[in-house]
């Protein structure tokens, strides 16, 4: 019986340890200012963070990650691999630049609450891109795997005062990317045609008034994730969505129109 209790305790301890982990997410602050957050699934007081790493992918071109804040007074190391460099090495399709972010090994005591994000660092995207997206490079991506883990995401910490190990568990759902075209907000006129979106703020229904033919309506949350897609309609139901700011893209027979929407 004693051996059985020992076995059960060991199993329980193992599963408890496995539940301690961090996910990463992209948080949009305003305009081209963003933060990378870590989301723990456990409470901790003065847990010792050693080193952190991940890779952000941006559209190939002039957009760069600039004005990087520090983490508890510790500076980040940032390295860029252009789409051309990756392609020449046999990785990628030549459309994305890689920005490898690393917090070198050190010591920072951090307290946090389960499921509450805390900021790893804040930064700006230069040259205001209006197409493409920013996204985490997944550890399972062929680029990361082909480079032997050099671009992998990790979160090394000592959370139990015994040893430092990697507690990274993945990218938070809906927080792995941001679409830059959601920042390109046009006026309510398209080729001399008026488009009205009402009510705004909306609670239950969102209506579009226009003489143009609507091909589709696409609603994005502020992180660029599609939450509603509707074809050939001039109204959508939004009462099931959390109160927040959204981007509505209206695809018409004369072009596309986008508008920032508030849902209460």
Structure keywords:
single chain, 264 residues, mainly beta, eight-stranded antiparallel sheet, five-stranded mixed sheet, 3 helices, globular
Tell me the structural class: mainly beta
Largest beta-sheet details: 8 strands, antiparallel
The Cα radius of gyration reads: 22 Å
What fraction of the residues are assigned to beta strands by DSSP? over 45%
By DSSP, the count of extended strands is: 21
Give the SSE map.
Elements: H1 2-18, E1 22-30, E2 33-40, E3 44-59, E4 65-66, E5 77-81, H2 83-88, E6 96-103, E7 108-112, E8 118-125, E9 133-136, H3 142-146, E10 154-158, E11 165-166, E12 168-171, E13 177-179, E14 189-190, E15 193-198, E16 205-210, E17 214-221, E18 226-231, E19 235-237, E20 244-252, E21 255-263
Parallel strand pairs: 1-12
Antiparallel strand pairs: 1-2, 2-8, 3-6, 3-7, 3-9, 3-10, 4-8, 5-6, 9-13, 10-11, 14-15, 15-16, 16-19, 17-18, 17-20, 20-21
Short structural description:
It contains three helices and 21 strands. The chain is mainly beta and 264 residues long. A hairpin with a 2-residue loop joins strand 14 and strand 15.
Structure report:
With 264 residues, the chain is mainly β. The chain contains 3 helices and 21 strands. Strands 3, 5, 6, 7, 9, 10, 11 and 13 form an 8-stranded antiparallel beta sheet that branches. The longest helix is centred in the N-terminal third of the chain and has 17 residues. The protein is globular and about 65 Å long. It starts with a helix and ends with a strand.
């Amino acid at each position: 019986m004693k051996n059985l209790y020992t076995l059960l305790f060991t199993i329980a301890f193992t599963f408890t340890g496995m539940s301690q982990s961090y996910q990463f997410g992209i948080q949009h602050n305003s305009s081209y200012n963003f933060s990378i957050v870590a989301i723990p699934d456990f409470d901790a007081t003065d847990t010792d963070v050693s080193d952190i790493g991940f890779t952000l992918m941006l559209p190939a071109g002039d957009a760069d990650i600039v004005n990087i804040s520090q983490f508890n007074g510790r500076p980040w190391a940032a390295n860029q691999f252009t789409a051309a460099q990756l392609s020449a090495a046999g990785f990628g399709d030549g459309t994305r630049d890689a920005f490898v972010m690393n917090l070198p090994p050190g010591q920072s005591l951090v307290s946090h609450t389960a499921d509450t994000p805390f900021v790893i660092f804040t930064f700006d995207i230069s040259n205001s891109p209006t197409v493409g997206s920013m996204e985490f490079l997944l550890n399972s991506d062929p680029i990361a795997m082909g480079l032997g883990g050099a671009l992998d995401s990790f979160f090394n910490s000592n959370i139990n005062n015994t040893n430092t190990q990697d507690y990274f568990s993945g990218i938070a759902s809906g927080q792995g990317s941001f679409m830059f075209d959601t920042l390109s907000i046009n006026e309510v006129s398209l080729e001399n045609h008026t488009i009205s979106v009402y009510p705004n703020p909306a609670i239950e229904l969102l209506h579009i008034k226009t003489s143009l033919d609507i091909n589709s309506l696409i609603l994005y949350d502020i992180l660029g994730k599609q939450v509603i897609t509707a074809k050939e309609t001039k109204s959508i139901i939004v009462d099931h969505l959390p109160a927040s700011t959204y981007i509505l893209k209206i695809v018409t027979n004369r072009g596309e129109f986008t508008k920032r929407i508030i849902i209460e």
